């Protein structure tokens, strides 16, 4: 015990010495010259970045501003953004309509809790989401991140059974290739190999992660699983049409109709996680519209505020909400994020939804789809490329192997911001991106992947 403590101590001292040397980011200075802002050098020792080996990863780029589809760096360079900040910034950065709405709300009421109170931005946004979503998806529970919205959907599903007097339905069916968040509850419904499952085994509840019913054999397998175990299953959880962060994998709308049919046959709830696909990404405002399927619960997040403020929502059908509507206080939904329904974020979301109504976003998605198809076509046949696929404003080049760090650096040298992961290089640009900027993104991918 003592020996390992001493070793830990030595490791900590060596690390502190190394960290105090690293903030100058010598390699990065060499690459971009002088002019590194003071906050950058100081803060690099303290700011812990996501999914990043802080010791060996390339230093982060110092960003000082955003505009449209551009990211502005401290040295004056502008990168064309192919990611739109994890596909949130659907109208481009700094859209004046959203900025004005948030500024006006800031003057009135930046925040007040929803505990016992209801304010205009949350009320209007709940109404608007209930109107936009199909069928009787009418009851909106706000939260502050996508992972929490999925956690709420899972708790909602489980408790809806309990409230109806049915015990033991605590498991979910979810799918290989899926991604639903990084919190403990949502990790357990992510792809077991792609996700962080194995690392956290023992912490996570066990769910049933199976293949999407894309063909007859897999449909029958899922049907048999549900027949055998429906009495332990609360619901089926799926990212409709595109599994995003698990690998940008596409499936047909028919798969969603199959899931609806199976969920009905075995009386389990169907949950669509639209956090990636929602707000136009695949060509319709919501992916469920393309399949003409009404799920029992939907989660939205990411592009909900047009990429300006954190906000997510879990929207339930009348049937699910009905299970909580009771004279028994114990039947209330036991959840309440502190900042749920934050007025600034709701104002941003309302303004973002205005833009979908006012501006031709879905036409823009179709134009992006066409341009991505043409612009990435020549990647087919390049060495190492195993697939090129496009759906809506999502373009994917899948490789048989990939040097992520080298690719990231080459893209920055080309003046574009593109973040490969797994074995894919992908684009999820702002839906408002100019054709010239989109061409710079696809040209950069073709150029870099053509290099020996
Ligand atoms: C990003 C994402 C989440 C998690 O959202 P956070 O806001 O990062 O917690 C959940 N589901 C899907 C489909 C996502 O793409």
TrEMBL record:
GO terms for cellular component: cytoplasm. It holds the Pfam family Aminotran_3. GO terms for biological process: biotin biosynthetic process; L-arginine biosynthetic process. Its EC number is 2.6.1.62. Pathway: Cofactor biosynthesis; biotin biosynthesis; 7,8-diaminononanoate from 8-amino-7-oxononanoate (SAM route): step 1/1. It is found in: Cytoplasm. It catalyses: (8S)-8-amino-7-oxononanoate + S-adenosyl-L-methionine = S-adenosyl-4-methylsulfanyl-2-oxobutanoate + (7R,8S)-7,8-diammoniononanoate. Its cofactor is pyridoxal 5'-phosphate. Substrate binds at residues 86, 179, 302, 336, 419. The modification N6-(pyridoxal phosphate)lysine is found at residue 302. One of its GO terms (molecular function) is pyridoxal phosphate binding. The record marks 51 as: Participates in the substrate recognition with KAPA and in a stacking interaction with the adenine ring of SAM. NCBIfam families: bioA (TIGR00508), PRK05964.1 (NF004624). Catalyzes the transfer of the alpha-amino group from S-adenosyl-L-methionine (SAM) to 7-keto-8-aminopelargonic acid (KAPA) to form 7,8-diaminopelargonic acid (DAPA). It is the only aminotransferase known to utilize SAM as an amino donor. Homodimer. PANTHER family: ADENOSYLMETHIONINE-8-AMINO-7-OXONONANOATE AMINOTRANSFERASE. Belongs to the class-III pyridoxal-phosphate-dependent aminotransferase family. BioA subfamily. This is Adenosylmethionine-8-amino-7-oxononanoate aminotransferase. It comes from Rhodoplanes serenus. The gene is bioA.
């Amino acid at each position: 015990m003592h020996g390992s403590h001493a070793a830990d101590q030595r490791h900590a001292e060596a690390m502190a010495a190394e960290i105090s040397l690293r903030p100058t980011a010598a390699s990065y200075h060499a690459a971009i010259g002088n002019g590194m802002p003071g906050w950058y050098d100081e803060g690099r020792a303290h700011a812990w970045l996501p999914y990043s080996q802080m010791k060996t990863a390339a230093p982060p780029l110092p960003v000082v501003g955003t505009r449209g589809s551009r990211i502005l760096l401290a040295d004056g360079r502008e990168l064309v953004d192919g990611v739109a900040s994890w596909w949130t910034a659907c109208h481009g950065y700094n859209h004046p309509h959203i900025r004005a709405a948030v500024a006006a709300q800031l003057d009135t009421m930046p925040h007040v809790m929803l505990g016992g109170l209801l304010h205009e931005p949350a009320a209007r946004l709940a109404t608007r989401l209930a109107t936009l979503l199909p069928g009787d998806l009418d009851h909106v529970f706000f939260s502050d991140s996508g992972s929490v919205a999925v956690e709420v959907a899972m708790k909602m599903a489980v408790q809806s059974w309990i409230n109806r007097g049915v015990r033991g339905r605590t498991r979910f069916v979810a799918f290989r290739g899926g991604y639903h968040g990084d919190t403990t509850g949502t990790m357990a419904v992510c792809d077991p190999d792609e996700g962080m499952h194995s690392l956290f085994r023992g912490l996570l509840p066990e769910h049933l992660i199976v293949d999407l019913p894309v063909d007859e054999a897999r449909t029958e397998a899922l049907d048999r699983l549900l027949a055998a175990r429906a009495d332990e299953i609360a619901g089926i959880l799926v990212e409709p049409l595109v599994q995003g962060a698990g690998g940008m994998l596409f499936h047909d709308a028919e798969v969603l109709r199959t899931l609806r049919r199976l969920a009905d046959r075995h009386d389990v709830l169907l949950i669509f996680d639209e956090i990636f696909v929602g707000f136009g990404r695949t060509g319709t405002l919501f992916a469920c519209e393309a399949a003409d399927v009404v799920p029992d619960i939907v989660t939205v997040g990411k592009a909900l505020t047009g990429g300006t403020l954190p906000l997510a929502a879990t929207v339930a059908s009348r049937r699910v909400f009905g299970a909580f509507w009771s004279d028994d206080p114990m039947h209330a939904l036991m959840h309440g994020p502190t900042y749920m329904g934050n007025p600034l974020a709701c104002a941003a979301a309302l303004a973002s939804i205005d833009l979908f109504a006012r501006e031709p976003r879905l036409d823009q998605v179709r134009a992006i789809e066409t341009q991505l198809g043409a612009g990435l076509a020549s990647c087919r046949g390049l060495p190492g490329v195993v697939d090129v696929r496009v759906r809506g404003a999502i373009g994917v080049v899948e490789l048989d192997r990939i040097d992520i760090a080298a690719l990231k650096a080459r893209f920055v040298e080309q003046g574009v911001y593109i973040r490969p992961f797994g074995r894919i290089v992908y684009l999820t640009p702002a839906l408002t991106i100019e054709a010239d900027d989109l061409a710079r993104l696809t040209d950069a991918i073709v150029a870099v992947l053509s290099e020996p």
